[in-house]
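Reopening this ticket.

The earlier resolution said the output was attached, but the attachment link was broken on my side. Pasting everything inline this time so it's all in one place.
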Amino acid sequence: MQKTILKLILFGGAMLLGACATPVPQENTTSIRATDAGRGVDVYAMRRQAGETVPNLLDTQTITVRAFAAKPRGTTNFEKGEELIGANCLASLDGGVAELTTPAELTLPLYGVQTQPLRIECINPGFKDGWTNLAPYNYTEETDSTPVVLPLSPIAIIPALIGSAIAIGIDAAIDSAINEEDEFRYRDADILLYKGQGSDQLPKPQVTAPELAALTGPGSSVSSAAPAQPSFPEVEGSPPLTEGTPYSAFTKEQIAAYCAQDWATRTRDDGRTEFNPCSRRDAFN
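Inline output:
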C-alpha cells in the first residue's frame, strides 16, 4: 500500500513538473533542413539521388529544446535555473541545419545506427554562449529489457540463476546480430547559459543551395560562405576517421586524445565526413 501511494505521489509530481514547463509556441516548431539543394528533413536525399552511398531515412523524431540560466549549486556545480524564453539557437548535424528560438520543437531525421550526432548552440543577451552535443542513443537496447523473476524457494534459486545467465548470453548474442536494425533516437535538449558577455550573432553554417533562400533571407544568421572547419592537432598514428575503420584499430591513448577534442564530425577537403571516435563509436565497424 505504501509503495502504491509513493508511486502516485511521484507520478503526480512528474505531472506537475510537466505542467510547469513553458508551452512551445506554434511558430517555434521547425525542422532540420539540408544544406544542399535537398528539401525536407532527409539531409541525404539529394546525395542519394545522385547515386552516393548514404544512409536511408528510417523515421523522424521531434525533440524539445529549452535554454536555462545556470544556477549555482554548491561551490563548483551548476543546475538549471530560470528558463530563458527567446534564446536564439542554431542546430546542426552532418548535412543539415536549423535556426530556432527557445522553447522550440525540432524535427530530426533518424538513420538507425548511422543517426548523426546533433550540436545546438544558443545565445541570449546577458549570457555567455552555450552549447550541447546530443549523441544518439540506442533506444532499442534501452527499452528491450526483461526482468528476471526468481522463485521463492531458495533451493530453486541456483538453477534459475544459471538459466537466467544462459538466457542473457543468448539475448546478448541476438542483440549483437541485429545491432544494425536497432533504433537510435535523441533525447530532449536543455542548454545551460552562464551570466556574462556572449556573442551578438549565431555562427554561420555552410549553405550551398540557392533554393534555401527562405533560410538565408533577411534577418537570418545563416550564410552561404563555407565555415571554418575546427582545427585540432592530428593524433599520431591514428587510422582513418571515416566510416568503415574498425573501432578496434584505435589505441586507448588515441581514443583519449580524441575525447579531449571538442568536435563530433567534420568535413575533409575532399568532401568526406570524419567522425570523432570518442563520440561516434557506431560510425566504425
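Reporter confirms the inline version is readable. Residues 87 and 124 are 5 Å apart (CA to CA). Confidence is low (pLDDT under 50) at residues 1-19, 173-178, 206-230.
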